[in-house]
Structures are given as structure tokens and as C-alpha cells.
Amino acid sequence: GVSVGATYTEEGKNRDLFHGEYLRTGDLGRFDSDNYLWITGRAKDLIIRGGHNIDPAEIEEALLGHKAVAFAGAIGQPDAHAGEVPCAFVELVAGASVTEVELMEFCKTNVHERAAQPKHMTILEELPKTAVGKVFKPDLRKSAITRVYNGALETAGVEARVVSVVDDKKRGLVAQLSASSDEDSVITDVLGSFIRPWERV
Length: 201
Prior knowledge:
about 200 residues, alpha+beta, GMP Synthetase, Chain A, domain 3
């Protein structure tokens, strides 16, 4: 079994690590009718849309049901009103052909929860993956933040652009913008409603 004790070198991460004798792993799961436990995903991957939790596995499983899709990754992209909305990235089967619009339509009939239907779809030549072949979602989140923030800045007529997204231990993912100091107030007006912080570099 798991021995109770400090697991992380950062003290803050050890807080509430155990619930009684159970270790909080951050995994999501369900018991079936035979009392088998099925691990379905990770709590940190949940998409939180206006306080509503969406399991990205529902979107990914639906997309993997399309004959042209080899790999799929669903994440929450920043949204100024809902906090996050679902978006999806896919890698196609070699030689397959399908458009992002067609995949969005496919999701409308195959992702049964309306709130979970992706608001944006991106087809990549290859999805980023870990050493064991799992889709690497932090890179997908960085890509979505860059696209959403740059789109909002462009729509507002602001010249500043996201040049990178970094993972800060305390603030999470932070968008780094190429901008002049006199643009700070207008950038705040444009990006202030989004949940992810930004900084000028």
C-alpha cells in the first residue's frame, strides 16, 4: 500500500494529499456494476465552463470514433465569459482527409452533452506526445491561449501579440506579450476578462 508521509519537496503540495488512509492521486474514475474501478481521466484536465465540469474524455472518445481521426486531445480554451470552453486538437490517420468544419459537425451529433461540444477544432500534422505516446496537453493549452489572446488583441486593434506561454509555478500558464509599456492599460482592457494571466516581455 501507500505509506503516509510527505511526498513532494514543495511543502504546499503535501497539504490535503491524504483523505484518511486514501491518497489523493488526482485521477477520475468510476465503479462498474461488477465493482471494478475504471480510471477515466485526471482532475486537472477537467474543463470548467461557467462552473460546469466537463470531462475531456467524452470529447476525445467521440472524435476517436471518426474513421479519419488517429489521436485527439480536448482542453479548455480561455473564454472571457465562461472562463473556459472546450476545444479539440486532432491528428488524422495517414492518408485520411476531413475538414475541421466536418469534425465540428461530427461532434454535434456524437458529443451528447451540449456544453461539451467543442467551440474550436484544430487539425495538426502530429499532436505533441509524451515519451509513452500520450497526448501532451500542456502544449495544446499553450497553443489555445496564444490563438485566443492574439485573436482578441487583433479584434481590438491592439498591436501587442503573445510570443510565448510559460508555466509559472505559482500562477500557472502565463501569456508573454511583445508590447510597449504604454499599451498596458489597453491590453488589460482586452485580456482582463480571461482567466489566464499575462505579462509584457
